[in-house]
Amino acid sequence: MKNLRQWEGKRATVFGAGVSGLALAELAKDLGMEVFVTEQRPLEEGARERLRSRGIGFEEGGHTPRVFETDLFLLGSGIAPRVPQIQQALSQGVEVMGELDFVSPFLRGSLLGVTGSNGKTTTTSLIGHLLREEGVRVSVAGNIGNPLASAVREEAEWVVAELSSFQLHWARRLRCSLAVVTNLAPDHIDWHGSYEAYVDAKANLVRALDPTTGMAIVQRSELPLLPPVSQTIPLSWTEDGEGEEGGVTLIRSRREALLSFPGLGKRRLFSFDALSLLGDHNLENAAMAATATTLVLKDAPKHVEEALTRFVAPPHRCQLVRELGKVRFVDDSKGTNVAATMTALTSLPGTKVILLGGQGKGESYGSLAKAVTEWARFAVLFGEEGERIGKALDDAGYHRWSLVRSLNEAVPLAYDKAEAGDSVLLSPACTSWDQYRNYKERGDHFRDLACSLKERPELGVS
């Protein structure tokens, strides 16, 4: 760790006792700070015991004036700027710091940040996998289950971190060596207030690059949305040809990804056939991951195609969970925004019966309705947003939909509407919080329901 005595003896109030907040509190304690944790909701007993065992004070079920007895407000992932206590602290001149600014100076390896609207977790996991296959000591952390504050304790040459817009909103001092922005589309508008503010938060990752040596991998079409950097590697698709100069190109006719970059020349990254993941969007994720690995190694990975064939994707992301009577059941529960669901609809082959609904994020469903009209045989709607999505479908002239209360009704109905060769696709375009604790629980429920169905003889044998 660097600057171990920087915070010694100072007081910190940590907002949020989720995964990242608890890890932040423990790191602050290790740095010699007097730490107090405040959480709006009741804590689980495991969190209470964890804090007590470290001698960390806490409160739960709301924020009291005790939070202001501090030198520093430390914000766990997801804490919004509109929280009244944070607004009051800013007005009183109390230092407010996000997770990334506090933790990043203590990381032991170079930081490779991954952000974007969709594909972050898969791309982050792929980069970590490819680097490990090449013998690089790597820590995979961030908004992927392993908090960045915990990665401080890991000996790594590179820290590959999935970073959310919530985390990046507060980033002012963050520095990283390589940035990957998978894609940009409206998401978390309810949190950020506007799409422009959301993109600006994502752009903080690019701003964190070293102005002379930092490199960014982005979508070519999204270059105008991001700050310029000295070395940008844009990704694009083409039907044929030799690929774009100074970028990475996915060539449909040749079914391969090519990289052209100064100092590395032009080389094939991988054949599409090496990737077992479903959908064109995962080819983009793999191309960005292979490009990032090449830049880290300063040479082409020796075993990238073999490594891709061994990669096991994170669950709930266009994951095939069952085939029944020539109907595929695909769990894309992580599709929690309109853009993610549209990607799943358009990237996966064949016709779909789509399951849509949950708790919304303040998005419009007009573009989603158009995609459903083109790609779905039928739509089954559920949850808080079901009626709103149904209205959008009606407005688009699409009336092949039914509204049900929950997945318990939605999954059997979707199978009943499917025909041989179809996919029953759970890609809800909404969060799960109206009926589930998280998207994982929703995806597991979908899988269990799909596995409980009995085969329809008229569809033929799988």
Question: Notable features of this structure?
Answer:
462 residues; Rossmann fold; 3 domains; single chain; cell division; Mur_ligase_C; cell cycle; UDP-N-acetylmuramoyl-L-alanine:D-glutamate ligase; peptidoglycan synthesis; UDP-N-acetylmuramoylalanine-D-glutamate ligase activity; Protein-Tyrosine Phosphatase, Chain A
Folded structure, characterized:
It is a single chain. With 462 residues, the protein is of the alpha/beta class. The chain folds into 3 domains: 11-99, NAD(P)-binding Rossmann-like Domain (Rossmann fold), CATH 3.40.50; 107-310, Mur-like, catalytic domain (UDP-N-acetylmuramoyl-L-alanine:D-glutamate ligase, 3-Layer(aba) Sandwich), CATH 3.40.1190; 319-454, Protein-Tyrosine Phosphatase, Chain A (Alpha-Beta Complex), CATH 3.90.190.20. 33% of the residues lie in helices and 23% in strands. The strands form 3 sheets. A 9-stranded mixed beta sheet has the order 7-8-6-9-10-11-12-13-14, with helices on both faces. Strands 15-16-20-17-18-19 form a 6-stranded mixed beta sheet, with helices on both faces. Strands 3-2-1-4-5 form a 5-stranded parallel beta sheet, sandwiched between helices. Helix 2 (45-53) links the parallel strand 2 (34-39) and strand 3. It is globular. The mean pLDDT is 94.
